Structures are given as C-alpha cells and as structure tokens.
Amino acid sequence: MVICKPSMAGRLVDVYNAAQHSNMTPAPVSLLGEVEQMVLLAILRLGDEAYAVPIRAVIKRETGVDLSRGTIYVTLERLERKGYVTSWFSDPQAVRGGKARRIFQLKPAGVTAIKAVKRGLDRLAEGTVAGPAREKKA
Amino acid sequence: MRRRPLVLLALRLVPRFWRDTVASDLDIEARALGRGSLWIAWHTLLVAARLRSTTLGDLMWTDLRYGVRSLLKSPGFTAAAILTLTLGIGANLVVFSVVDRVLFRPLPFADVDRLVFVSPFDPESGNRYYRLAKPLFVEGRRLPGIEDMASVALGSGFRAATEPATAPTLTLTDVTYNLLDVLGVWPVLGRGFSRADAEGRRAVAMLSHEVWVARFNADPDVIGLMLTNARARREVIGVLPPDFVVPAMNWSVERHGLSLNPDLMTTATPRDGTAPGVARLLPGVSLREAQAQFDALSVRLDPDLRQPGQDRGPRVLLQPVRHGMFWLAIDYMWLVSAAAAMVGLLGCVNLSSLLLARGRSRAQQVALRASLGATRARLMATEFLQVLSVSVVAAACSLVLIVWLSASVTTLVPEIYRSLVIDGLDGRLLGAAAIAALISSAIAGLMPAWTATRVSLIQVMQQGAPGAARASRGRSRGVILGVEAAIGLVLVAGAAFATRSFIGLVATDVGFNPAGLQILRIEPGGVPRGGDNAAELAYFRRVIENLRRQPGIERAAGIDVMPSSGMVPMTGAEWNGRARSGIWQITEDLVPTIEASVVAGRDISRADVDEERPVALVSRTIARQLWPDVSDQDVVGQVLSAPGEPQRHVIGIINDIRNAPHEPGQPMVLIPASSQRDIWFLELAVRTRGGRALDVEDLQRDLAGLGVTSVTSRAAGGRIRSALEQPRAQAIIFGSFGALGLLLAAFGLFAVASFDVALRRYEMGVRVALGASARQIRGLVVRDAVRPVVVGSAAGLLIAWWAGGFMQSLIHEVDARDPWTLALVILTLVATAVVAAWLPAGRAARTDPAVVLRQS
C-alpha cells in the first residue's frame, strides 16, 4: 500500500521547499491545538502504521502525555473534518481473528499546517531560552 | 476474538462512524495487553462517552444549520409557521405580562404561605366588612396559632403636600407599628416603626423605595425629613425595600409609604373598630386551625361585640394573602390566561398540521438522509431543531410585538389592574418567552417529527403509489382537526358571550345622556352655609341663572347630588310605609339638562320651584314598588306621604337613572328645591353647547362676582366609563382571542385539508376515472374535513359548558350557557370549516386521472 500518490509526493516537496525558503510572512493557517499537533506529528512518524493505538502509544512514549483513547478519536475526527488527514481501512491483519484497522495519513494541507505551526513556534522561541541552541559560526 | 454481548452493547453507544475503528483498535490493544472482554467493554464505554460529549454539540450545530437552511428554502412555509406561532406565543406573553404579578410572581414578603388576611365577615351574606372589632384584633394577636398580627388602614392615611406644589401629594398608608415584622420585611435605609414609637405616639413615616428614588433622588438625608400637610406632620424614619407592596385587599391604590397610626391597636371601648389585619401564622399551623381559633374567639367575645338589635356578633374570615390581595382579579385573570393558553395551543396544533403537510413533501429528503446512514434519533433531532428555531423566532417576534404594543395593551387593562401590568421587558417575561418557545416546539414538533421520520425507503421510491403514508393520515389528521375545532369553539364561545355582555351594557339606558354633561361643584363664598335656607336657595338660583347666561352653556340646573355619582342624598324617607328612597331636591330644567326622559306626566316647572309646590317626580323603580298594579298614567296624581314629610302629589315619572350600566335603576323621589329644607345643592348639572369642554377658570372668574371661591368640574359619564372598562376589556380580550382562534382554526383546517388532498391524489384520480363528478369529489373532501370538526365541536361544547360557570361571574345579563349563542358558535365554526376546505376540495375536483394514474 502506498502512502501517497507520486504526483502528491511531488507537491509535498514543493510545499516543503516553499515553506523552508520563504522569507515572506507565513500564510495564516488555521490554528492547531496542542493535541492536534501531537497527533499530526505522530501520524507522520508512524507512516503507514498510523492507527489510533500506536498514535496514542507514540505520543505517550515521546512526550509523556497520556491521552485518553476517546480524545485521540475526537482529535482524529476533527483533523479529518479540517482536511488535514485522511483515513481508510487496511486489509485485515494476517493473524487469526485479525482486524482491519483504520489507518490515518496526512494530507498535504496537514503537512503545511503542522510545518507552519512548527515554524511559527520556532520563530517565537528564537533568541529566548526556549529557542533551539544556535550553531556558533566558525 | 468473539465479541461478548457486553462489548456489543457498549459498542452501540459509540457513534456509528467510529464503531468499527474502536472495536478493532480495542481488540488489538486487548490482545497486546492480554485483557479480556470486560476491559474492552469498559474502555469502549469511556471512548463512547468522550466521543458523544463532543459530537453531540457539533451535531446539534450541524443539524441546526441544516434545519435553518431548509427553512430558508421554503420561505412561504416558514413565514406561515412563524406567523401562526407568533400569534399564539404573543397572546400568551401579553397575558402573562398582565397576570404574572397576580398569579405567579412571588410577593415581596418572607414566608408568604404563613401570612393571612383577617377580615370581618358575615357568614350569612358572605359579605366582608372594613371594620374589625378591636377586641378581636387585640385578643387575636394572643391566639396560640398566631405569631403576630398587624393592621393596615387603607381607607385612611396621611396625605403630605410636597414641594413643588405641582407634584402629586404623597399618600401614606396608616399601619400598626409591627407591620414590617409581621411581613418579614426590613427597611433599606433608616429604621422601621417600633413599639416605643407607638407608645410614645410619635408621628413617624416610612417612604417607599420608588418614591425615595423618584422624588428624593435616593438622598440618604431624607431620614429626618418632615412631611407636612395643613393639619399634621410626619417625620421620615426609614425607606422601604424596592417593590414593597402594602398587603391590602385593594391592590389598585397607589401608595407612597407607610405612616404609623398608634390608634389602630389600642382598645378603648369594646365596639371600637380597627382596619382588617394581616397575621402571620406560627410554623405548622394550618389555615383551618387558625380559622377555628378565631371562630372560637369570636364566639367568646360575641356578647360584648354584638350591636343592639343584632342576633350575632362579628365573625372573621382568614384568607391567604395572595388570594386576599387579588381576589377581585384572580378568576378573571385565570380565565384570560386559559383563553390565551388555548390560543397558544391552537397555534401549536396549527404548526403541527403545517409540519405534517411539509413532512410529506420532504419525505424524499428524509429518506435520502436515512439511506445515507442518519439514525431515526438524528432525523428527529433535525426536525425538532427546525421547529425550535421557528419557535425561537416567533418568541422573539412576540417580544418585539409586546414592546411595540405595550402602551395600547396597558390601556386595554381595566384601571384597577393597570398598575399590575409589567411594562417593557423584564427577566421573567424573557424567561416566559423562552419557556413558551420550548413548550410550543415540544407540542407542535414532536408528532410531526415522529411522523416525518417514519419513512420507508420503498414507499418513497414508489412515490405517489396507492396508499402511501395512509396509515398515519387518518389518525393525525382527525386528531388535529378535532382539537382545533374544540379549542376554536371554546374561544369563539367566550368571545361571543363577552361581546354580548358588553354590547348589552353599552346599550343599557342609564337614564340620562352623559355626553356633554358636566357636573360642577362650587364653593359658595357669598352666603353663610347652614344658615338661612331661603337665602341659600336664592343664592344658588342666582348662580344657576348666571351659568345659563354663559355662552358655552346650553342648560344648567341644580341637584343635591348627581344620581350617577354613586352617592345618595342625605335625606330619604319610607313612602306610604312601603318603599324607601332618597329625596333629591332639584331646580327646574334638571330633566332636560341631563336629558332624562319623562315617561308620564310632566317635569318640575319653574313655578313649582318658585311657589314651592308639594309635588314630586318619581323614578320608575319606586313607582313600581309603591303602585305595582297602577299604569304609568295613573301613577300621576297619586299621593306620597312619609313621616316628617309634607304630602306630595306625583306629577310625573322619569326613566330609571343608573349609577352604572350594570347596576339596577335607583328608587328616586325628586322634589322642587324648598326654602323649608336644608339646601345642599352640592352639584350643578351643566350641559355644554356641542359637547364642548368647560373652561373652569373662566367660569370661576365670571362667578367670582357672586362670591364663588372655587369651581371644580367633572364629566358626568366618568363613572359610567370606568364601569364599562372591565366589560370592554373583556369583550376586546375575549373577542380578539375568539377572532384569533377562528382565524387559526380556519388556517389549520385549510392546511390539513390541503395536505389531505395532496395525499389522496391517486385515490381522487381513480374516483374521477371511475366516473365521480367534480361535485361528488368536492363533497367528499368537504365532508371529510367537516366530520372531525363536528366531533371536536361536541367536545368543545362540553368544555364551553363547563367553563361557562366561571365565565358567568364576569358577564352581565347574559347566560354563559345560552344554547342559542352556543348553536350560533357551532354554526360559525362549521361554516368556517366548509369555507376552509372549499379551496382544497376544488383542487381535488380538478384532478386529472390521466396524469395521476400515469405517475403511479
């Protein structure tokens, strides 16, 4: 199963580059809540294994935040409605009694949104103690 | 893993969209963690709760938006729905603004349930009196069931002149020192009356909060202010809390504060009286127990309190304060509220029928949503939210209407209730509007929502197929038509009786013509009063002559006291030992001045007055009482005699003069003014030219030459007008409710009949194809519409019959169960039904079988 169609992958790169090299004021995107950001990043990280159980687990492992299952579903539904993620049922697992899982995947808009939020946060934090450590120029 | 029933149950609670996902995810997790189905069920429940709590709000919002959009798409329906409900809710809110204070609003006293009025009462006649024997009051305070009792003297009080002189006088009500303690009310400024005030007979007063704010700018220095009038003064010692009302049998009187009257409580002689009391019962003492204690007390005190010649002393009646304060208004207000509720119900039923009709046309839409996975509950919620949004808009329209109409609504309310009306918007009215919107959506929306969402996909596919949705048609349609007819009948009957009563009163001959008739009172300065009667009579006649010469005055005459004023002259007599009446002294020309009519004989002439002839004019009532078997013509010439009175010959009979249209004619004997009797001539009747108003100041200047020091004038019709106020208000209120009822019923009938015809197109097509004539089809539709109306009318008739008992007390000289009126009402209703069904029937008759049958 492919994560995204080739044409879509190409667009993703464009979006990525545009976001990296633009000096313009970032286009305003709709705000993402903290949980939404975590869920989006977890989906990105999980690739085609992104369904609710590992999403929750990876968030807990990486951030220490223990979200309830319900919250994960509510957030996924909201993200899907906003057009940031899409989902489909996978083929049943190849074990006895294996289930079909609802797999989530970021749509380009989701990638743009999480990147924009990330960049915005970084800019805000830049030069403060919360900012990333700067590499000293030689 | 096989899913256990518990898990399946929990999964049912998860929104359908997530159900499979949650099931599979929890399965996977349970497998990994080695948990069983109990764990899965529990976590499914948690997830369901979380998902439901967020999605419910979102769904409502979505449904609401969907509902509003689909309402906007059919503006005709929406406008009709809002209009019908605005009428219903508006009528209720208007009535609520009038009745709220009487029926529902909490009285501003602590623990009102323990407060009772203690009023003197005659158990035989059922009359209540104003004068409570003081021993009953003093001993009553010590009864075991009574915490304390205070007294409020409404008739008397302190009137204070205020600065500037043009400001209205302040009227303070006389009360005992303990009133506020009994009521559980505390002053917001200063202090209340104390026992020491009463014992020291201090002249102290408290102002109402409203007066304090409006007249004294809420100045705290008002404490210590002296209120004065010509005779006495009162020191202001406190300010009452906002919205304080004097607990009194007559709400109507505007009161500006309280004044301490120490005399109300002390007993001098046993037969002294005080004003009726307000008592607080001890906790746990019932009204019945307290009444029994008072009964025992009045029996014990009976010998002391009995007036000479009476076979029994006074008794008292205990009455809950709210009922006591509003007993004049309560029945009336309940009846008006009931009528308004019926208009509201009719509005709801109408909306129901509209929604049913619309539900049919939207069946495809609903079926589409159902096939896309919307649950029944979801579909119903959408339908219901539509009704709710219509109701909310209607309630808002009603509020706007109320604010807009509030001035004219207030003028409709009889004077004595006017101060009860809540003017403008207040929290309770807004709350009432919200509740009205909710209730009407519940009444109007539930059945149509249920019916509209009970669609079968197959039926919708076979659109127009025979028998589609027939099952629900018969029942809901019949119920709606029947309910509409029943409510309509009751409303129209109420309107008919109230209007008949009012028209009867307006048409009642009060015995004189009040239009353009002014009653003057003059303060004579040029002649010593109570001295020489001949001089006084001459003086008054000079004044009358002078009045007759005034350019704006057509006629003028003198009379002791104008008979329509509600007062009777100071002197009276028992004539021929058979009947009593007052004796009015009049000058010549009185009868034409007030435009009374002489039925037989002649009027009192100038010569009768000049020569002081022993003659009399009698009213019809006294003539009948004295000479029941004698014709009018033969009464003339009869002799009137009474102890201490000279014998008089009757020279004429005049028509009865009534104090008010609903009061009986008075027994009157009118005699020529005589220098042998005390001259009162308190009032001068003046008929102005062309009904113009009198310029009193001008008149006063002209009469100053005769020594007249002051002239006051009032319209003779004032009392009649105020007596007609309540019947007129009733006629207008019930009349408009009746008209609204008929309009709404007709509208509803029309909607239902149209709905019916649309539903039965196929049937009609078959009938036409089989040879039914247009006339037969029309007759069929009309008969079908009218049949439930007849059944409903029968039910309505029973309700109207039952309600007639309550209505009777409000109407005058009309039987509230008059069969002819009721028959007319039924006829009106059935005729309305026929008219309403006629248009849809015409549509049915024009059914083209070719078109209809091809469609199926």
- Largest inter-chain interface? A-B, 17 and 23 residues
The CATH superfamily name of one domain in chain A is Winged helix-like DNA-binding domain superfamily/Winged helix DNA-binding domain
Mean pLDDT of chain B: 82
Gap between N and C termini of chain B: 50 Å
Order of helices and strands of chain A: HHHHEEH
The strand count of chain A comes to 2
Strand line-up of the largest beta sheet of chain A: 1-2
The percentage of residues in β strands of chain A lies in 5-15%
Output the CATH class name of one domain in chain A: Mainly Alpha
How many domains of chain B? The number is 4
Number of helices of chain A: 5
* Large-scale geometry of chain A: elongated
Q: Please bin the fraction of helical residues of chain B.
A: 40-55%
Commentary on this structure:
- The complex is a heterodimer of chains A (138) and B (856).
- Chain A has 138 residues and is mainly alpha-helical.
- Chain A has a domain at 30-121: Orthogonal Bundle (Arc Repressor Mutant, subunit A).
- Chain A has helices at residues 6-21, 34-46, 52-63, 69-82, 108-125; strands at residues 85-89, 102-106.
- Chain A has a two-stranded antiparallel sheet.
- Chain A is elongated, with a radius of gyration of 17 Å.
- Chain B is an alpha+beta fold and 856 residues long.
- Chain B has 4 domains: 5-59, no CATH class; 130-313, no CATH class; 329-507 and 723-855, no CATH class; 517-716, no CATH class.
- Helices cover 54% and strands 15% of the residues of chain B.
- Chain B has 27 helices and 23 strands.
- In chain B, strands 1, 3, 4, 5, 6, 7, 8, 9, 11 and 12 form a 10-stranded mixed β-sheet that branches. In chain B, strands 15, 16, 17, 18, 19, 20 and 21 form a 7-stranded mixed β-sheet that branches.
- In chain B, helix 10 crosses helix 16.
- Chain B starts with a helix and ends with a helix.
- Mean pLDDT of chain B is 82; it is low at 464-472.
